[in-house]
Amino acid sequence: MASPILFFVLLAFIFIAALASDPSPLQDFCVVDTNSQVLLNGLACKDPKIVEANDFSSGELHIAGSTSNPIGSRVTPMTAAQIPGLNSLGISLVRIDHAPWGINPPHTHPRATEILTVLEGSLEVGTALSQRCYRRVMCSYSVFPIGLIHYQRNVGNESVITIANAVFGSKPQIPSDILVKAFLVDNDVVNHIQSKF
Length: 197
Prior knowledge:
Blueprint: H1 4-18, E1 73-78, E2 93-98, E3 103-107, E4 114-117, E5 123-129, E6 132-138, E7 141-144, E8 149-154, H2 163-168, H3 176-183, H4 187-195
Antiparallel strand pairs: 1-2, 3-8, 4-7, 5-6, 5-8
Helix pairs in contact: 3-4
């Protein structure tokens, strides 16, 4: 027969574990006040009495981004800077335009899950997991779980911080000896990749 103390300890542990979650926002919305001089961890809120409908929308997502760059894609972010009503909600939007065979290089989102919707064309999407790459061609939507490395490539003919930019294009540069050990390549390869950025 189990001890009553052990039973209550287990019950308390289950109760505490069940309460673990992100806290709810303190208010319904916190539209960015771009004129505020207040410095805090985040963006200051506009007085709710002067919030407007335009604070919750943007007309910028319909504008195609230029894909005339080495990777053949353009990521257009929509954060609280573009849509003030997104402030403190923990979400953002992006539009990704791909040239034919353009890519969105391998990258990760350490604090968010990505839901990708294809509006036109076909994308090859890949997710790296446990030293395996899972890929498929999609025309609808895909989910990339939080923290997993993933990429997209336009496999049709219609026209975010990436790992490569962050690692090989950082200023100041990450020391070459660290990159040589991390990627198991020689120093010439690291120098060649860094020269592209």
